[in-house]
């Protein structure tokens, strides 16, 4: 028996009575401005939630009402988001206001090295606290703003230099944020900001781990970010995280999973009426999945959708995490699709055009583009242009860019150029690559 049905029967409520109570509560929460609008409940809808093997996942406002009525996350009621099919959902519900004993803002972590590479995730790391002079630790809005600004700074650094050196400080920021949530004193509005910050840091940490080649760790953070998005009804965070997960799935050669994640991201994007730049990003992510499995027809269709959406233009609602999708990056991602489909000539032209459009603020993306361009050129029999692109990519690495993904590209270039080792300059280039990625 589904938990939702068990709780309703335990409360001695018929389905009709439960719907009536939920409707009343929805109106009350809406009047208090705790939800954006009062959802409509029906017996038919409740019956689906209670009896269907794969019930429809409630809209964020409906989720908020259900959770307020039954005083537990909807996942514990037996309602799972579509992404939960991959494995068990690990929830980390935390109160919006803390009633803990007054802590000191000095964090002392217990256990075996919680900030180390092998320690538990930040949301599972145990902490102990002392007592400050005032007897309590009240969180100031400025503290949350400072951490949020630091997250934005790290994102900008990632775009230009790569993320190999970013996941550790971001993990520390996330641990501190969870400590603030669990131990601090704050009002409901600041509590929402803290939870939003935790989600932002978690998905960023997943991306930085992915860029650093820590794939299992990245998947753990992405999954937790998605859990947090589903728990709080944050469809913006869900869209961002699913886009990241789709990109990772392509690199892991899981094209079908990449397609499914991108489509799920599109569904979440519809729920918050996402701007065109976001829908373009999710469409090109889907295209990459189709390309990886060799589906030319659906890849072409997804690329076309991405182009149409992107050409709609900028929007004041564009989130900062989607700004990177400029014309250069969209062209690069299409070129990567063409390369995966074996369309080497078309891929080389697109990637060369993308590289010419890249700016210094996105050096990591330029490095990735150069690596793909080199691969496409060599596969197309154009060794000279392949060498030139690889040399430029090496220059970026030598200038301080630290992306393990770029290093992996260089290894692929090295292997692709081995058959041409007798050509002029190739032997020296191979030695340079080995010096950086050995």
Report on this model:
- It is a single chain.
- This protein is an all-alpha fold.
- Helix content is 63%, strand content 1%.
- It has 18 helices and 2 strands.
- Helix 11 (276-292) packs parallel to helix 13 (327-340) and helix 17 packs antiparallel against helix 18 (426-437).
- The longest helix is centred in the middle third of the chain and has 24 residues, at 188-211.
- The radius of gyration is 24 Å and the shape is elongated.
**Quick one: overall form?**
elongated
The beta-strand count equals: 2
Number of helices: 18
Oligomeric state of shown chains: single chain
User: What spatial order of strands do you see in the largest sheet?
Assistant: 1-2
Strand content: under 5%
Low-confidence stretches: 84-116, 128-133
Distance between the termini: 56 Å
Helix content: 55-70%
- What is the alpha-carbon Rg in Å? 24 Å
Structural class of the helices, strands and pairings?
mainly alpha
Mean pLDDT: 81
Largest sheet: 2 strands, antiparallel
Order of helices and strands: HHHHEEHHHHHHHHHHHHHH
Task: Give a short summary of the structure.
By secondary structure, this protein is mostly helical. It has helices at residues 3-10, 15-31, 43-51, 60-70, 141-161, 167-183, 188-211, 215-232, 235-251, 255-271, 276-292, 296-310, 327-340, 344-357, 363-379, 383-398, 404-417, 426-437, and strands at residues 108-109, 127-128.
């Amino acid at each position: 028996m589904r938990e939702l049905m068990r709780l309703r029967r335990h409360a001695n409520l018929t389905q009709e009575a439960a719907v009536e109570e939920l409707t009343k509560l929805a109106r009350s929460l809406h009047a208090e401005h705790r939800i954006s609008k009062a959802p409509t409940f029906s017996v038919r809808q409740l019956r689906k939630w209670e009896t269907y093997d794969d019930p429809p996942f409630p809209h964020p406002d409906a989720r908020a009402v259900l959770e307020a009525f039954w005083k537990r996350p909807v996942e514990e009621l037996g309602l799972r988001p579509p992404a939960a099919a991959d494995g068990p959902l690990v929830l980390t519900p935390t109160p919006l206001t803390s009633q803990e004993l007054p802590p000191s803002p000095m964090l002392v972590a217990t256990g075996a090295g919680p900030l180390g590479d092998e320690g538990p995730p930040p949301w599972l790391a145990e902490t102990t606290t002392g007592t400050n002079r005032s007897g309590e630790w009240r969180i100031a809005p400025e503290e949350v703003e400072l951490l949020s600004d630091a997250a934005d700074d790290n994102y900008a650094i990632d775009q230009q230099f790569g993320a190999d050196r970013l996941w550790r400080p971001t993990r520390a920021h996330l641990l501190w944020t969870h400590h603030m949530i669990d131990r601090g004193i704050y009002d409901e509005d600041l509590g929402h900001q803290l939870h939003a910050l935790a989600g932002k840091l978690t998905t960023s940490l997943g991306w930085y781990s992915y860029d650093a080649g820590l794939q299992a760790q990245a998947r753990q953070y992405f999954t937790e970010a998605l859990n947090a998005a589903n728990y709080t009804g944050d469809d913006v965070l869900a869209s961002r995280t699913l886009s990241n997960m789709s990109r990772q799935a392509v690199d892991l050669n899981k094209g079908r999973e990449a397609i499914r994640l991108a489509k799920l991201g599109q569904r979440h994007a519809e729920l918050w009426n996402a701007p065109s730049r976001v829908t373009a990003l999710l469409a090109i992510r889907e295209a990459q999945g189709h390309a990886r499995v060799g589906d030319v027809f659906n890849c072409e269709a997804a690329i076309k959708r991405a182009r149409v959406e992107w050409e709609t233009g900028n929007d004041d609602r564009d989130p900062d995490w989607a700004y990177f999708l400029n014309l250069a990056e969209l062209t690069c991602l299409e070129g990567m699709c063409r390369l995966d489909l074996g369309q080497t000539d078309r891929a080389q032209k697109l990637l060369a055009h993308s590289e010419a459009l890249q700016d210094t603020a996105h050096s990591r993306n330029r490095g990735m583009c150069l690596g793909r361009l080199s691969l496409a050129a060599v596969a197309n029999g154009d060794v000279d242009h392949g060498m030139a692109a690889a040399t430029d990519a090496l220059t970026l690495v030598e200038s301080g860019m630290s992306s393990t993904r770029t290093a992996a590209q260089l290894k692929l270039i090295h292997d692709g150029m081995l058959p041409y080792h007798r050509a002029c300059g190739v032997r020296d280039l191979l030695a340079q690559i080995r010096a950086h990625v050995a």
